[in-house]
Specification:
The chain is 29% helix and 21% strand. It has 343 residues and is of the alpha+beta class. Helix 2 links the parallel strand 2 and strand 3.
């Protein structure tokens, strides 16, 4: 099918095409949550030579993971010009003629699919209503795969993925310590040298009836930490204590959320957070996502040092098997994590 971008540009849409209607009428429709600011973590303090400064940021990191599962990272050291180039080249991809983009489409429903683009998600056999989103998604680690067009895409994503891998490793070192573990515990247990890393670009054009459609329905992420940048247009919502909130960003900062394997490894102390992408009728929103997970063959279990006084809350599963089970099930459920719960 044609991309959402093409659909929006080809006709003056006054109402939502029925195949995109997640809600029948405005009474059932999505209610955009109130705005909220999540904790801000100064990444540079993780390298501080002042032990008190470092101890405080580790404490703040643990609190953010426990209370919100979402935080903003500032002073992360990734150059502004690299982030700007990344948005520009992803825009170039979505601007390419439909025929060129289609050569990168892969409809296989399960990972590991290396390069995938299109409007319907990989689990489209279960997807009755289409999402108001075009996307591009591909593996960047432990093996690197990238579309050959636009020409600059590969080098820019390669550099960004390398830098975000370093960022993830250092943040997980701080999170490790916040759990009372050795700094390199998660790095070793999750085999981060061969970590699974996926890059995705999501493109959400203005929607004629944003309250009836959805960009991405509520879901949790399968990995350890997910990073998200957006182009200054809000639309990321998270669930906290049963209520939905719309997150407000900080220019240049990166949203980070805890994901399923971190919940398992922390034995439930750090929860994987439900989140969704909502739409608007005025501006195009773009989000750039890097999902960081354990190595594909890592069997993830609760960290044994955390089980001295508390029994294991989750059973073991190989990470790539977990991803495949989750991808083949419906996007708006959390069945795999629930399946692994022991009590």
């Amino acid at each position: 099918m044609a991309s959402i971008k093409t659909l929006v540009q080809s006709q003056d849409l006054k109402s939502l095409p029925s195949e995109f209607a997640h809600f029948k009428d405005t009474q059932e429709s999505i209610r955009t949550g109130p705005e909220v600011s999540v904790p801000v973590i100064d990444f540079s303090l993780l390298s501080s030579t002042d032990p008190d400064e470092r101890a405080k940021v580790i404490l703040d990191l643990g609190k953010a993971c426990e209370e919100w599962g979402f935080f903003l990272v500032v002073n992360h050291g990734i150059p502004e010009n690299l982030i700007s180039a990344l948005f520009n080249v992803c825009n170039e991809f979505f601007d390419m003629p439909e025929k060129e983009k289609l050569q990168f489409e892969n409809k296989h429903p399960l990972y590991p699919v290396m390069v995938r683009s299109g409007t319907i998600d990989g689990n489209d056999s279960n997807q009755k209503v289409k999402l108001w989103r075009d996307y591009l998604r591909f593996f960047v680690h432990p093996e690197y795969h990238c579309p050959t067009k636009p020409k600059a895409l590969s080098d820019i994503v390669l550099e960004y993925s390398r830098r975000t891998r370093d960022l993830a490793k250092k943040l997980l070192g701080g999170i490790s310590q916040s759990l009372g573990l050795e700094e390199d515990y998660i790095e070793k247990a999750m085999e981060l040298d061969s970590s699974t890393q996926i890059f995705a670009a999501n493109y959400y054009p203005p929607c004629p009836q944003p309250e009836l459609a959805i960009g991405i329905p509520p879901h949790t992420d399968p990995g350890l930490l997910t990073f998200l940048l957006q182009n200054g247009v809000e639309g990321l919502e998270i669930q906290n204590k049963g209520k939905w909130f719309q997150l407000t960003g900080i220019p240049g900062a990166i949203f980070v959320n805890t994901a399923d394997q971190l919940e398992i490894m922390s034995n439930g102390k750090y929860k994987s957070v439900w989140h969704r992408a909502v739409l608007n009728n005025k501006k195009t929103r773009m989000s750039l996502v890097v999902a960081n997970g354990p190595s594909p063959d890592t069997i993830v279990t609760p960290a044994p040092p955390l089980l001295r006084e508390t029994p294991a809350a989750y059973g073991p599963m190989k990470y790539m098997e977990y991803v495949q089970v989750q991808r083949s099930s419906r996007l708006n459920q959390k069945p795999t994590l629930d399946q692994l719960k022991l009590h």
